[in-house]
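Q: Got a minute? One more chain.
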Amino acid sequence: MKIIEKIETHISTIEIYEDYVIKTCHTNKYAFSNNWFKHYSFLQENNPAMIEVYEVLSDQTCVMERLHVEENFEKIFVNPEDYPWFNKSLMLDVAVVTYKMWSQCLEYSKKLPGDDCFIHTDPNLFNMVWTKNKQIKLLDPDSWAYTTKMKYSEKFYMMQTQLMYNMLRFFYKENQCIDIQI
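A: Always. Here it is, folded:
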């Protein structure tokens, strides 16, 4: 297969093909170990928002699904009115995906020995995208990693704060109050 696009940074190299993507991490020597793949695959099986990893080629390289991204949610939230398809239901789905990711990490980590945890170490709205086939997906599978004592969990709380701020902006219209009948 021919490479459609190649993106190189100091952190990783991403080769985009017609039906898949190959990602090689430069800063994490064990980003895609076989042990990592076992745990990631278990979580991925129960979470359709996680990008599908097909195969681990080495401790630093994996083959994953190719997404056709419409936009990342960090950019969408800046001016949601620029995206006519963005609505209440999608906003709430972003919250559901966020909290499912976190609760899934907590539940799974309870099964690990000692202080070990398996969590997403870089959750943020930039790494969450809306695809052209109308799915919310979490990017950067290498951000799922083993930690001890919930290291990096503060990033989830930073994402939650950013999400809640954007939800308030989305739902609150200046000087507009509504009375909800129950």
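A: The chain has a mean pLDDT of 92.
Q: Perfect, thanks.
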